[in-house]
């Protein structure tokens, strides 16, 4: 998946993707954001973390290739052996490969494992949002709503509202979906993301 240079670019691309693919967006939204956050965390921990662990993390994640199971196994072992930010980021990267391969159960397991290894609220938010989208794809709306409760911080309001609305709509709760998306529209989010949510509200009314 392409990693965008800034959040505006990423959200613009997501909007175009939504217009073309509709509900396929439920897994795709946020992956670029997660990758960007992961890179920033890796960068910020270079000085404070072990150089050896840092080098090992870079090696296993750079080698990740879904067509080569050995690289996935190596990343999984690294994540299991490192109960720290590097281990969490390895789980995040590995989960992406599993998502790309449509192995959603394995992706969810990696995200849940990563959540145990970090106390950082922003990184936890990324992991929980990815997990919620996987649960949505697996038709588990109640699990989605539970997972979203673990996402903290006003900066995530619109993205949480997007996923919550999709989960509620899948349960037949049209009013709940509309209320969730309206909350996202009223939040301090990028205009393009608000426009995407408005499109979903308009589709309900139509």
Q: What are the defining features of this structure?
A:
206 residues; mainly alpha; 12 helices; elongated; disordered N terminus
What structural class do you assign from the helix and strand content? mainly alpha
Poorly predicted regions are 1-11, 17-33
Q: Roughly what percent helix?
A: over 70%
Shape: elongated
Portion of residues in beta strands equals under 5%
Largest sheet: none
Give the CA-CA distance, first to last residue.
33 Å
Structure, briefly:
The protein has 206 residues and is an all-alpha fold. It has twelve helices and no strands.
Question: Could you explain how this protein is built, in words?
Answer:
The protein is mainly alpha-helical and 206 residues long. Helices cover 74% and strands 0% of the residues. Helix 3 runs antiparallel to helix 6 (85-100) and helix 10 runs antiparallel to helix 11. The longest helix is centred in the middle third of the chain and has 17 residues, at 121-137. This is Ancillary SecYEG translocon subunit. It is a single-pass type II membrane protein.
Secondary structure: elements and pairs:
Layout: H1 7-21, H2 25-28, H3 31-44, H4 51-62, H5 69-81, H6 85-100, H7 104-115, H8 121-137, H9 141-148, H10 157-170, H11 174-185, H12 191-205
Helix pairs in contact: 1-12, 3-6, 3-8, 4-5, 4-6, 5-6, 6-7, 7-8, 8-9, 8-10, 9-10, 10-11, 11-12
């Amino acid at each position: 998946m392409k990693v965008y240079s800034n959040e505006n670019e990423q959200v613009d691309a997501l909007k175009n993707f939504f217009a073309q693919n509709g509900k396929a967006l439920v897994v795709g939204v946020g992956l670029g954001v997660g990758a960007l956050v992961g890179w920033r965390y890796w960068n910020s921990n270079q000085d404070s973390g072990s150089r050896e662990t840092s080098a090992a993390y870079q090696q296993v994640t750079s080698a990740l290739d879904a067509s080569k199971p050995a690289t996935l196994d190596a990343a999984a072992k690294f994540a299991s052996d490192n109960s720290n930010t590097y281990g969490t980021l390895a789980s995040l990267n590995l989960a992406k490969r599993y998502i790309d391969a449509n192995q959603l159960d394995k992706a969810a397991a990696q995200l849940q494992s990563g959540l145990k290894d970090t106390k950082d609220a922003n990184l936890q938010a990324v992991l929980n949002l990815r997990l919620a989208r996987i649960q949505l794809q697996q038709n588990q709306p109640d699990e989605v709503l539970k997972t979203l409760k673990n996402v903290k911080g006003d900066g995530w309001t619109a993205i949480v509202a997007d996923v919550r609305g999709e989960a509620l709509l899948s349960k037949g709760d049209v009013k709940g979906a509309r209320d969730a998306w309206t909350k996202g529209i009223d939040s301090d989010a990028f205009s393009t993301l608000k426009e995407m949510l408005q499109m979903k509200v308009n589709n309900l009314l139509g």
